[in-house]
Amino acid sequence: MRLNKQIQIINSDYRFFMKEKTIIFIILHTEKQLLCVLIKFLLNFYIYLFIYQINDFGNESIKAIQIKSIYEIIQHCQSQYQSMIQMLISGDLVESLIKRINLCQNLEVLILQLNSSNISKKQAAVLGQGISRCSNLNNLDLNLGVNQIDDCGLEALVSEFYKCRQLKDLNLNVFYNQIGCKGAIILGKKLAQCYNLQTLHIHIGSNQINSDGFIGLAEGLCEIKHLNKLELINPYSQICSKGHQGFEKQIRKCTNLEYLSIQIQENQIGQNDIFAEELRENEEIAVSNKIKMYSLNIEKNNLNSEWMTAFSRFLSGMKNLQVLNLNFKSCNLRSEELITLSKAFIFLNNLKTLNLQIQENTIQHEGISEFMNKLEYCFNLVNLEIQMEQSKLNLESCLQISNSLSKLPVLNTVKINFKYCDIQPDSMVALVSKLKFNDSIQFIYFDLCYNNITKMAFQKSKQLINKICKLVHFSYKVEIW
Fold first, then answer.
1. For the chain, how far is it from start to end, CA to CA, in angstroms?
2. Rounded CA gap, 362 and 374, in Å?
3. What's the topology of domain 119-269?
4. Distances (CA, A) of 370 to 161, 334, 345, 403
5. Longest CA span, the chain
6. Domain range annotation of the chain
7. What values do phi and psi take at 476, rounded to 5?
């Protein structure tokens, strides 16, 4: 009796979402003693509801389908249930779902969360063939992370996506499968046939992809003429500096690209690389002048001066850049590399938002001073956030920070992390000494924990802050010694 009540709740929720022309399969949180019974009933229950609702409402009314992974929904349960969950989600489930999805001829949005589902290359092929029959599809979100898809399976999956002529937004997650360089290159070539793609998100990390595969992927993607937004996530792979530089070289050919986000943390960039010839060749390629938002997460690589020189040159070409997010955390950066990076900011006159993470490196005060000096050229900067934890600051560099912030005419919000920066009492006072000259600032937050701040220095800095415009909200996080 209690089980019947739980099933009725699920069916009720299901009908509610159908009124919004969206099918969503959801297993509500239930007590553990009911869980095993529900899981055994789950597969047939899915298919029964799917058939019933299509027959009941008619396939023309169904515009969007979202299928939630069983594994993802009840992953909080004990491990003894997980093997059973994975067994049920595999097998004939993919084939059964695709048959029902293909009955929805007017389907426009399809979201399939099938991560950790033991999907093989054969099932990936079936999935790809089924999706290609959705001729009106314009938004596809396909999560196939942590499965058993290899190069052949990936090719079979995406080879007929071009038949979805209306497809504009694609989110493809094949994280942690068995994909190598061949698969990455094929993926780029096949997606290049999807001429109307505008937004593309690819998560292909934790596979066996090296620099050649990464460049080959970019060679295909740059052929997508209408591509406006690209997010590529490829951490924990085998990409070196040559691969990253080659990727950027190809992406510059995307003349309509406005949003570019790359995540390649924990690769092999900067490790004993010699790529001077590639750098000279890259100089001949003009960067896309439409990019307005650029994000690069290159955390936990070993960046050297050669790489930073090339990257600074690449960055300086983004004349229309408005939003910039750079993550250089734990990249073995020194002052020399940061000074090289700072040269690019002379050309970023349209920059409005900067989020820079340079914590956990070995940057000294001269590097910080030079960077802040060059930042003054970004006279349209509105929002500034810098994580400079473990950098070493002296009185001169703290004065330069305060002076540069005071010279940015439209700066509104400032957040800076100064943890473990060896800041002395007089340096803390110097950080706020020039801020009173900038009446555009509305919010300031300084994290000054784990420095050498005395109570007297803290009180003196507060007195200086009180002289700033009353509209400023100033916030400290500090430990007094």
1. 65
2. 20
3. 3.80.10
4. 49, 13, 11, 12
5. 76
6. 1-108, 119-269
7. -105, 150
The set of residues, in sequence order, having a beta carbon less than 8 Å from that of 274 and lying 6+ positions away, is none
Please write the tens of the pLDDT for every residue from 366-375.
999 999 999 9
What's the pLDDT tens digit per position in 216-259? 999 999 999 999 999 999 999 999 999 999 998 899 899 899 99
Ramachandran quadrant class, 218 (left: phi over 0; alpha: psi -120 to 50; beta: rest): alpha
Residue 139 CB contacts under 8 Å (≥ 6 apart), including other chains: 108, 109, 110, 167, 168, 169
Tokens of 69: 């992974």
The CA distance from 282 to 314, in Å, is 9
Residue 274's identity, in one-letter code, is I
- What DSSP line would sit under 21-51, residue for residue? TEEEE------HHHHHHHHHHHHHHHHHHHH
Q: Which two tokens stand for residue 336?
A: 């020399």
CA angle 438, 440, 443 (to 5 degrees): 100
Residue 433 DSSP one-character state:
T
Q: What angle do CA 319, 324, 330 make, to 5 degrees?
A: 130
